[in-house]
Structure prediction request, 293 residues.
Amino acid sequence: MEVETFRGDWFTISGPGQGDRGVELASEVQDFYDAPVSTIRNKHAFQKGSSYGGKRIEDRFPIFSVYVSGVTGDEWEELDSEWRKAWDYDQESKLWVETDSSRRWLSVSLFEEPKVDMEYDPHGELRVKATMATVAGDPFWYEEDEPKKWINPIDTTDGSISTGTLRVSNPTDQEIWLKYTVQAYPGAVYTLPDFSFGSDRKEMAVQHAARTIDLPPLLPGEHLRVDTDDSTTQVESSLDTQVYLRMQGLRFHYPIPPYTPPTDLPVAVTGAPAGVGVQVRMPRPWSRPWGLH
Prediction:
């Protein structure tokens, strides 16, 4: 287990190399495992029991303790100071957990001030126990995104259409929202997929089984970033234009379900030369710091 601080430095607190900066994980670890969830139950006046009405994914509050140790009083004080400087209420640091099969991080900031055991003078003991109460607004553990690219192989500035595929997948236990970047060329129109994958969230699972969306024609020098998450703005311009107005109300609706095997999704472009293309990034959120493959 490692800590990557918001300042960009690292502490190894458990496993090979632990204590490389005088800090080691103690035994008390809480709220590291499954993401916290509360379910919603509905009932009418004469119903026996209740019916499932959905779930809320809550924020996570990891608590863990560390021992900060030094050889001299001056060294201990410096190590203790460096550990405290690794944490902030406004900035997020990352807790990294690596096993034989995965390496994932959780972004956390301080929820409360660290609690330090002052029963004995740490300058005399050359060791102190600090308990860190943190909060993860996003409760999921992440692996590195997996990117894929499609490069347009032909010139379509004559109005022809070039088509291809992007191979996407979701090995995690959570749904994921794809993130696209389309490359600039004046007047180019890209087409991106928004398949329902059987979801009836818009009550159009069959009609949207092969749904696609045409992005607006690009302005000179304009790249578009697309986050298909329906809780976001979704489409942003590298020129900071009001591109959402040019979308004419079209929005992406569907995430990739958990445990979706590699699947080829169609993409297309018209009005662009060979060599431009589309990149897709697939986030990798997990409920737990390891397992669930």
Notes: The chain is about 5% helix and 40% strand.
